[in-house]
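LAB NOTEBOOK - FOLDING QUEUE
OPERATOR: T.R.
BATCH SIZE: 2
PURPOSE: Compare the predicted structure-token outputs for two unrelated chains run back to back under identical settings.
PRIORITY: normal
REVIEWER: second-year student, initials M.K.

ITEM 1
FIELD SEQUENCE / FIELD STRUCTURE:
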Amino acid sequence: MAPIAPSTGVKAEIMLLQEFSIFLTEGTQILSALQSIRQNPTIFAIGRRETPNASSNTKSIAEPDSEQWATKFKSISPTPDVFLSALGTTRTQAGSFAAQRTIDFDLNLSLARAAKESGVKTYVLISSGAVSSKSRMPYQRLKGEIEDAVKALDFPHTVIVKPGLLVGKRQEGRLVESVLQTICRGMRMISQTYLTDWWAQDVDVIGRATVAAALECAEGKREKGVWLVEANDILRLGKQQT
């Protein structure tokens, strides 16, 4: 993975980022992108197990009880500049839709509230494209509801990354996604730009785009408020460094 280039902003911004810190929940590709930043931020990565492939600037927080994650976050001093959540599961992994909701919604919101109470300025959520709290589809409605909930917390910067189909190696296999990825690869042989970029993005590109969006907010290059990072932004932010 090519390293993410540092900001071309004023020197004061770069100096601020020498003390840059990020709190990450899950997200292997995002962790790889974070570890390639030349500003060398301190990364606090929490999970149920030790973070694999952790670099010297990554502090792994292993806590099997996810209900303790918010408390673990609040114990970090000083408070990280960015809170980045790639937290999510599937109904199959969780065992039921109700169990999935406790992770995708309840745990995400609990952590977002802890971040808000601790004074985090930039909150980043990895969501999904084409979701809405008014959807009749349970998964799309669930994702829409957590988006609405974190927006309501009113962070100075709220970044919601909304990719389409995730293309590439993932930690868990999903049958429908595997079929769609096969279709996507075939269509890319004809034209990636016109046939797939608008509905499918590589996981490495999404990871780099997520980190680049977080940096733009932390460096004051984006106006305060909510930023929905959708397909066009993902491709622009994620591919410009390759």
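ITEM 2
FIELD SEQUENCE / FIELD STRUCTURE:
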Amino acid sequence: MSRPEETLPPDLFYNDSESRKYTTSSRIQKVQSEMTHRALELLQLDCPSLILDVGCGSGLSGEILSAVSPADGGPHIWVGMDISASMLDIALQREVEGDLLLSDIGQGVPFRPGSFDAAISISAIQWLCNADSSEANPQGRLSRFFNGLYASLRRGGRAVCQFYPKNDAQRSMISSSAIKAGFGAGILEDEPGTKNAKYYLVLAVGGGEVQGDITNIVKNMGDVDVQDARRGFSFANKKGDRKGSKAWIMRKKEQMERRGKVVKASSKYTGRSRRRLAF
């Protein structure tokens, strides 16, 4: 059976019919509730917070955020973003309490820096790993998302993204993109080795108590793969490559590709000096 993200882009897959089916399914409601509560447990919020719900769908997770009791640090205020207009329409019909934004997370997170205390995402970010067109670069979409998410969180903020990687390569691509954006990152696997296995990417922004070290969040948990290799600095320009040389141009092209830009293919003429003709 093919994975949903391999059949159609999310804005087409979650049409009116599929969105309503997803929202009214008792099985999906139960699983969504369990994963949202697990994400809240990993966020460890001890006071009412402003939370970004990435891929909020019809607001199933948002309802849980709004219903957290004061004894457990709630209730929380939330803003949801999703690429499916049908999902957001159902959320409006259900009169959820959060604010809603129609947006493609693969194009970034369009909020002012430091807007949110925390973020959650349930079963959404694996959709970024599939290219819907020749110009859609999965690595670029992941990079734009995680860079935007990092900027939108306050210093010391946290994020938990539950996702279903297709394989180890996809899992590594997602986690490495988060690390390159500056996050401290740890992957927690629930029910490992079973068909019900669920992965949680736990992220922390440097500053405050966390200091960007994700081990402060998951150090006492089992089955955790901790990766804390935050963005380093490159001194590639000190290699002495002359501006405009082939090596300089190739390095610039690689940088643009990592950012998701469309780059012209290189050829034997790349970086070659042009002959000037005198008249």
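REVIEWER COMMENT (ITEM 2): The longest strand covers residues 153-163.
FOLLOW-UP: none requested
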